[in-house]
Amino acid sequence: MSEPKLKDVLSRATAVLSEAGVDSPALSAQLLAEKVFGLDRLGLIMEMGRAVKEGPVAEFMELVERRASGEPAAYILGVKEFFGLEFKVGPGVLIPRPETEEIVEKVQDLFGADDNFLFSDFGTGSGILAVTVAKLFPRSRGIAVDLSPAALEIAQENARLHEVDDRVQFVLADFNRPLLSEAKFDLILANPPYLCEAELDEISYEVAEFEPVSALVSGPLGDEDIRGSVPHIGAALKKGGMSFMEIGYLQGKVAYDIFDSCADFSGGVEVVKDLSGHDRIVVAEKR
């Protein structure tokens, strides 16, 4: 029996994933194939007519079955790209979302590459924001906070991977409680949980069943972590310091009101839309 061609194996995997109803079946099949067959995207295209051996095909189809069960491709692969950098991810952290990259772009608008500043990342998860900012701004220093020991372990791995672990300190703490006795940060980034409990039933199975609920759901209303963290963000920022917080696309008004009702930010708050036209980032300056 002749060995199957890569294109036929890939086609079969795509069909399995399509039938299972997972998100982006063709892309998922390609990503898993790149991992198993040791190819990049261009190599995969160039090698479509290549015969592949039974062992790697069996390994590939095992990963396809995991993906067909709803397990996110990023967890199967163990990595996810964010802002052009590769980050380790796992079941203990949320998978990085493209819209979060827009926070990094805001930081680039605010600081020059050689600027020296101190920042904090509230709810760091896999460390994507803290590590990316530290990587882009080699004179910056940061403190990244999370309540999850599992998340902090992955974040520290990412900091070591990108060689910024000497400038980013990771702290196990609740960002809804006071962190510092004095205002010291030039910038605070935040990506808190922002789903309400009812919304958990409406999001995709892949997210609800595999990603950490504590990083997704804030509480019954969905704005509890925004409301709880804003006073402490204000207290930790220097005067003139900036905060960029990612919010849910339905939370623009409530998030604006929460920030604007805080004396530290009143009159210095703006809600910025993402590339899809949805409310996504609260930009707030400490008065």
What does this structure look like?
Strands 5-4-3-6-9-11-10 form a 7-stranded mixed β-sheet, sandwiched between helices. A two-stranded antiparallel sheet has the order 1-2. The protein is elongated. Helix 1 crosses helix 2 and helix 6 packs parallel to helix 7 (128-136). The chain has 11 helices and 11 strands. The protein has 2 domains: 6-70; 84-285, Rossmann fold. Strand 1 (79-82) and strand 2 (85-88) form a beta hairpin. The protein has 287 residues and is an alpha/beta fold. The model has no long low-confidence stretch (mean pLDDT 92).
Short summary:
The chain is an alpha/beta fold and 287 residues long. The protein contains 11 helices and 11 strands. The strands form 3 sheets. Strands 5-4-3-6-9-11-10 form a 7-stranded mixed beta sheet, sandwiched between helices. A two-stranded antiparallel sheet has the order 1-2.
Oligomeric organization of the protein chains = single chain
CATH homologous superfamily title of the largest domain: Vaccinia Virus protein VP39
User: Major sheet: size, sense and barrel closure?
Assistant: 7 strands, mixed
State the end-to-end distance. Answer: 74 Å
Low-confidence stretches: none
Question: At the first level of CATH, what is the class of the largest domain?
Answer: Alpha Beta
Helical stretch tally: 11
Estimate the helix proportion, in percent: 25-40%
Could you spell the SSE succession in H and E letters? HHHHHEEHEHEHEEEHEHEHEE
What is the general shape? elongated
The strand count comes to 11
> What is the CATH third-level topology name of the largest domain?
Rossmann fold
Strand order, main sheet: write it out: 5-4-3-6-9-11-10
Average of per-residue pLDDT values: 92
Task: Tell me the β content.
Answer: 15-25%
- Provide the CATH architecture of the largest domain: 3-Layer(aba) Sandwich
